[in-house]
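agent: user wants the structure for Triosephosphate isomerase from Thalassospira alkalitolerans. delegating to structure tool.
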Amino acid sequence: MSQRRSLIAGNWKMNCLRADGLAIARGLAERAKTKGELACDILVCPPATLVSDVAGVTTGSAVNVGGQDCHVAVNGAHTGDIAAPMLADIGATYVLVGHSERRADHGESSTVIRQKAMAAHDAGLIAVVCVGETEQERDLDATLAVVNGQIAVSIPEGASAVNTVVAYEPVWAIGTGRTASVAEVAEVHAAIRAELTARFDDGDGFRILYGGSVKPSNAAELLAVPNVDGALVGGASLKVDDFWQIIESCA
Ligand SMILES: O=C[C@H](O)COP(=O)(O)O
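agent: tool returned. relaying tokens verbatim.
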């Protein structure tokens, strides 16, 4: 098995005015600097309004910065949207694509998400491609079919372990306080790994993150599950202490 370095990613979603966001970013950057060698990579994805400022205060630290979404095109008449090269231009090195809130709120299909991942790659960004089933789909025993289908369509042919991270986030576990069980996480992550290794020469090297109510109290247990190579954290990433405890849960 290849050595995969874990990634702990914070998705701030539509939270934080400038002062709050910069306080979190500074807090993380200071800890990263004083801690020295860390067992994992760190990523924060602030709202687009703060990407540039957060990149500024985290420069020279181990904290990477990413966008929460990008458009499929590099520029053009797309009012309100943000192109991947624009994110790269202001210091982002990652971008989330296909988060379930984008799929639900903006009707994004896996086909569009694949195009967004391609746009991210073209801009030199690492795409964090998010997948996950709804509660209804899990109740119908369709979890693996749904997730495998999302993986098959959302991840483009040009993907590699270098430019792509997968995030498994069961929709019913996001922001609900309900976390998938270790057995549920293990089953889905193993299925995603099988899809990746079947399709990509370096499929064993892709990092697969778990997301959905990850917090300091459950992080170590989730991060110890086979094929869990980090976490995508929402609510708990808005508190420096909580997010740092999750970072320190990496073995
Ligand atoms: O992107 C993050 C996920 O949606 C998880 O959010 P949460 O940790 O608040 O459940």
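agent: one observation worth passing along. The pocket of glyceraldehyde-3-phosphate is lined by residues 11, 99, 169, 174-175, 211-214, 232-236 (CB under 6 Å).
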